[in-house]
Amino acid sequence: MSARAAVTRPSAAELRGAALAYASRGVPVLPLRGKLPRIPAAHQPGDSLYQQCRGQCGQQGHGVHDATCDPDQLRAWWQRWPEANIGLRCGVGFDVIDVDGQTGRHSLERLLAEHGGVPIGGPRVRTGSGGWHLYVAPSGLPDQIGVLPSVDYRAADRYVVAPPSRHPTTGRRYQWIPGRGLDTPLGELPAALRERLTPQPADRQPEPAPTRPAEPGHPYGRAVLEAETARIAGARGPGQGRGGERNQVLWEAARNLYNLVAGDVLDEAEVAGELERAARACGLLRDEPRQTQRTLASARQVGMAHPRGVPERSARGASGHDHPHQDASHHPPFRPRRQPDHPPER
Ligand SMILES: [Zn+2]
């Protein structure tokens, strides 16, 4: 699109058509005024449901939770607010790396250069303020403002402004980079960024339990292996209770086990085999083979970077404390705000 077109106000038909087109691809959409939700908030400060309700009250006005793929609802919204910008919900079909201007670009490039320089790829938007939105496969990781200087990560419960919306300050349009529209296969979240986004136990546990190396086959390692693989095998998929959680459980359990592989407590080949068996048992390997392999590769990479041995208490086998606590991993339970199962590869 030309520089002139970039400042031309999109027509109502153009905005409505784009909103419907995103929704028809399974991307939930919400109307925006500038960058903020257009629908007035259902709950104000002082209301007991303020910042608690996510739409269970039946009204609209819950920010990203209003986003929908229902074409009738979208037509009604854009009939009422023909000039509304378009917000796309993240964490469902994609996550977005939000790069703010040249500062953000440089911090992302620096990170990539330090870690092998693998390009991220995927659909890409030039924002109305001169930044970029990089669309990557949903990671299940929590969103994070400032994951790098001038770089945010937008995931579950966040949204991004999408083309052809106009930036409220500059008046410039958000535009898909030519050849990098939403048809482009999603980008890969770089491992170095994934690691930064992963809640680290050290953040909440300043003094980790002292550990010492042990030979593979130590009873502590065996107990953790059994507990973690049982957790994966029992994880629920979509339609099996409240939300799918299999991918998240798999990632977390695999990361915990590879921590112990790196600490020489468990044997790598055995862990890989047991993880695959558990992923098959919960149906994940059958339903989402490619995403599952990516999850395992990522968990291995992060896990191997943080070796962990046997906690002192368990290392003293003679004292009869070979059995780990319920949370054998010593990682606090990882609880992102939502635990969406990744949609199948499209
Ligand atoms: Zn409500």
On the 0 to 100 scale, the average pLDDT is 83
Main sheet, how many strands, which sense, barrel?
A: 6 strands, antiparallel
Total tally of structural domains: 2
N/C terminus separation: 28 Å
Name its key features.
four-stranded antiparallel beta sheet, 12 strands, alpha+beta, 35% helix, 12 helices
Structural features, described:
With 346 residues, this protein is α+β, with helices and mostly antiparallel strands. It folds into 2 domains: 3-197; 203-323. The protein has 12 helices and 12 strands. Strands 7-8-4-6-5-10 form a 6-stranded antiparallel sheet. Strands 2-1-3-9 form a 4-stranded antiparallel sheet. Mean pLDDT is 83; it is low at 203-208 and 316-346. Bound molecules: zinc ion.
Quick summary:
The chain is an alpha+beta fold. It has two domains: 3-197; 203-323. It is built from twelve helices and twelve strands.
